[in-house]
Design goal:
Elements: H1 8-42, H2 45-68, H3 75-78, H4 80-103, H5 110-140, H6 145-190
């Protein structure tokens, strides 16, 4: 005869233990696969990592604001990080791709290329961000707590990824072209 405790408290504890491991694994796998995809897409570790800045900032800032607002990160909401990774990476890929296209035009300077990049991507990314945030926010109006929290955290990570795409990524691109590219050219000439 085996006796065990039962009830909602113990069911919740068992669920949290099981889902905590799963969400950590899915987040790690999602991040590794996205990293591989962007490095292959840009054929550059630097540009791949630059595109991931929107993802990293979006998820970190979104989860931080979520906690700052007084919400708890539960297993159900921490699973949202994997979803957030898939959404946030798009905000990084768009400006990096467009900037690289603009830089191929020899008549454009770094600053002109960046201006054209932002001019061509901010509008569509804004519309995408608004649509995604509105869609996720609809989850927040329901009575199911974990779906409400899921909607809030996905809205926050999406918004923060957008902010990163229009602030952090452009700065990184200019720093790369202004300082790192000339340095690597000098090193190649020496070797």
């Amino acid at each position: 005869l085996e006796l065990t405790y039962t009830g909602q408290i113990f069911i919740d504890q068992a669920f949290q233990e099981q889902s905590g491991e799963t969400s950590q694994t899915t987040t790690t796998v999602a991040f590794a696969l996205v990293l591989l995809v962007v490095i292959l897409l840009f054929r550059s570790i630097y540009y791949g990592l630059t595109a991931l800045q929107a993802l990293l900032f979006g998820v970190a800032a979104g989860v931080g604001v979520f906690g700052w607002l007084g919400f708890n990160l539960a297993p159900a909401t921490s699973g949202a990080i994997s979803v957030g990774i898939g959404i946030a990476v798009d905000f990084g890929i768009q400006p990096v791709s467009r900037y690289l296209e603009e830089r191929k035009k020899e008549e454009l300077s770094m600053e002109e290329s960046l201006f054209k990049t932002l001019e061509g991507t901010v509008g569509p990314m804004s519309m995408g961000m608004i649509a995604e945030v509105l869609g996720f926010s609809t989850l927040a109006i329901g009575d199911v707590t974990f779906l409400s929290d899921l909607g809030i955290i996905l809205s926050l990570t999406t918004f923060m990824a957008f902010i990163s795409a229009i602030t952090v990524i452009p700065s990184s691109l200019i720093l790369h072209d202004k300082y790192i590219t000339p340095l690597t050219r000098r090193i190649k000439n020496i070797l």
